[in-house]
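User: I've been going back and forth on whether these two constructs are worth ordering. Before I decide, could you fold them both?

Assistant: Sure. I'll take them in the order you sent them. The first construct and its C-alpha cells:
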Amino acid sequence: MKINFIDLQAQYLEYQTEIDQEVLEVFSSAQFIGGEKLNRLENSLATYTGAKHAIGCSSGTDALLLALMALDIGAGDEVITTPFTFIATAEVIALLGATSIFVDIESDTYNIDAKKIESAITERTKAIIPVSLYGQCADMDAINYIASKHNIPVIEDACQSFGATYNGKKSCNLSTIGCTSFFPSKPLGAYGDGGAIFTSDDALAAKMRMLLNHGQNERYKHKYIGINGRLDAVQAAVLNVKLKHFEKEVQEREEIGARYSDLLEDTDVITPKIKEGNTSVYAQYSIRVKDREAMVEKLTEQEIPTAVHYPVPLHLQEAFEYLGYKVGDFPISEEIAGQIMSLPMSPYLKEEQQDFIIQAIKG
C-alpha cells in the first residue's frame, strides 16, 4: 500500500484550479514582492488568529529572528527556551549573540515545563520562547503569568501549531509575539519557505515591518540594521487559497489524530496527550516506543514512512557545546528524544491506510 508521510500532492490536486489561477495572476501582474496577494494574506491571517497585526516573512526561522531583533536582544542577554525542539528556536538566539537558557519539558506534552521556568530567570533574562510542539500549545497562561511578574516578553514559537487553540484562543495570538512557519510540510504550508509574525503591539509591528525590509522606514532611509525577510507574492498566493480550506483540514487532522490514539490504546505505544482546553493540529503525529529502531525497521519493511522529531536535544548538539551542558542536565528531553517517532499524518490519510499502519505496529 502506497503511503506518503505527508500527502502534499493530493492536496495540490484538490485545490489545483484555485492555486494555478492565483499563481498565474502573480506572474501576469509581475508583482512578485509585496502587493495585493500579500496584503490579503496578512489581513486574513490577522482575522483568523485574532491578532491585531500579522506580518508575512521569509520563514519561521526569520520570524523568530525578527521577533528577537524587535525586542533588541543581543550580546549578554539570556533567552529561556526548551532543548527539545528544532534547532531554529535556539539558533536565532545564538545568531544575535545572546545565550539560550534551556528548561526541561513536560513528559506528556513534550512542551516546556512552565513550573521550571521561574528558577531559570536572572537579571539578564530578556525573553521566554515556549515552543508549541507537534501542533499543541504550551501552557501559555502559566508562562505569561511568570513573564509578567518579571516584566519579560514572551515569544510563542508556533511554527508547528498554527490553527491550534488554547483555552479558546488561537495559537500565534497568545503572547507578546507569535511566530509561525509556512514550510511546505506544515499544517498550513506554502510551496517554498515562508512564515509570519503576529502581535497586537503597534510599535513592535511597525518595527518588525521595517526590520524585515533592511530596516527601512522609507525607501533608502534605514532606521535599523535589518534583514531581507520578505514573503514573496507567489507564496502568499498559494497560502491565500490554502487558508480558505484550512479549517476543514484542521478538523480532519484532529479526527485522524484522535483515531490513531484510539486504535493504539491497547498497545505499549505512548500516544500524544492533548491537555484539557487545548486542541492540536497534529503537525506531526508522534508516538513513543521503547525500541524505536526495531519499530522503524518493522514499519520500513511494510514501506510505511516514519520520521524522528527530534533525535538529539539541543543541549547535546555540537553547535551548542559552548553552552556547557552535558548528558543528564535535561533528563526528560533526553528520554523522549530516544523514544519519539512520527507516523504519516495529513488530512488525506485514508482510513484503510491508517488501519494498515496500525496493523504493522501491532504485528
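The second construct, handled the same way:
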Amino acid sequence: MKSLNRKSAEIGEKHPVKVIQFGTGNFLRGFADWIFDLMNEKTGFLGSVQLVQVHGKKPATSLIEQEGLYTLLTRGFQNGQTVDESRLISCIADTLNPYMEYDAFLKLAELPELEWIISNTTEAGIFVDSTDTDYTQTPNSFPGKLTALLFKRYEFIKDKSFKTIHVLPCELIEQNGKKLKEAVLAYAKLWQLPAAFNSWLEAEVKFYNTLVDRIVPGFPSDEAEAIQEKLGYKDDLMVVAEPFLFWAIEGPESLKKLFPASRLGLDVIVVDDLQPYRTRKVRILNGAHTTLVPVAYLKGLRFVGDAMNDPEVSEYLQSALWNEIIPSIDLPKEELEKFAEAVMDRFRNPFVKHQLSAIALNSISKFQVRVLPSILEYIKKEDKLPMLLLKSLAALLVFYRGHYKGLDIPVNDTPGVMAFFNETWKVGDPYEVVPSILANTSLWGQDLNQYPGFSDRVIQEVIELLDQEKTVQA
C-alpha cells in the first residue's frame, strides 16, 4: 500500500499561507481545515494553513511525513440518511514546533498573505503564565506564543502595508476572543512592550468571539485497516467527523466577504450577538445530553446510541425537547425545532460510541447550567411543572445514590458533592432525602422547594424508581 504524500497523491503547488493555526489536533483538522480546504476548491479563497504545535516538545512526525495531507471521513446520520464520505485534505502547508524551531515560528510573522489566526488549545489554553518573562525564549502558554508572533509582525511591518489579522479562537469558553485579547495585552504589559504595539494591535488585529460545534471522534482505530484498503493508501492521520457543523462568529457583516464559508452551504454565520446561539446549544444539545443520561442509565442502557434505539427512552427525550425545553427558550420556534432535529440525528450517529458514563461526569453542575434554566423558565411561562424534566432530575438524584438494581453506578463528581449525596442518602426515606437535596443552594443556586409542587413531584418520581428496583430485586 502506497504512503500518502503530495507526490503519491498528485497534489499540485501549495497556495500561499493565509492562515496560522495553533493546534494540530483532531478537532481543527476535522472542522476548520476541512472548511478552508472546501473554500480553496469552491470560493477562490486560495490559501494554505500553517500549523503550529502548542503542546509537546517533539515534532508532529506523521504530519511532516504525510506533508500535511490526511483524509477526513464524514460519518453519521443526517436528514434521515446515513452519511459515509471521504475527502483528502490538502490545505496544510507545513507544521512546526515553536519549542524546537522558535526562530522559524517568529519568521511566520513576515508572511505577506497572512490574514487569519485560528486556535483550539482546550478550554484551559487561554491563560497568562507569569513565568513567561522573556519573549526571546519560547513562551509556555498559547497567548504568550501569539503575543510574541504579533510583536514580531509589528516590528517587521513598520510602515509596510500588510493585511489586517483576524483572530478566530475556537476554544469552548464564553467570550473566547475577548479573553484571548486580554491575555495578549497582559503579556504586552508583562514584557513591557512599547505603547505603540498596543495601538497597532487595536487597529490591525481583530479578535472575534466564536462558538463552534462538531463532534470529531478522531482516528478510526477499529476500522483503520479496512478503510485504508478502500482508499488505496496508508494514512496515519485519518479523522472521523460527524456531518453536523456549526460555526458562529460575532463580528461585522463585512467579515462574510473575507471568510466566504457561508457560500459553501455550511452553517457558518456572522452575527451581532452570540448569546442566543450559545443558549440554544447549552439548553438543547447539552441539555438533552444531561436530561437523557440518568433516565437511560437507570434503565440499563450504557451508550447514547443504545438509548436512541430504545423506543421508550427516545420518545421520552423527544417529548422533553419539543414540549418542555423548546417552549422555555426565547428564540423562533422553527429555528429551535430544526436545531433539535439535528441534535436527535447526532445522537443516533451509528459511528460514534458515546458512553453515558462519560457524559455523566459532574452531572450536578451540568444540570444546573444546562437543564435547570429550562425547568424554571417553563414554570414561569407555562405556570405549571415540566413533568418530563423533573423525571430526569429524579433519576439524577437516584443516580447519585451510587447504586441501582444491585449494580454500582460510576458517579464522578467533586469531593464535596459526592460527600453530600453519600451522607444524605444514608437517611433512605425519599420524603426526607429529596427536600434536603433540593434545598442545597450550593448545588442549584437556590432552594428548589420554593416552587409549589416541585418537591412533591420529584419525590413521587424517586419513589417510582425505587419501587422498580424493589421489583427487580424481589
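Notes on the second construct follow. The radius of gyration is 25 Å. The chain has 21 helices and 16 strands.
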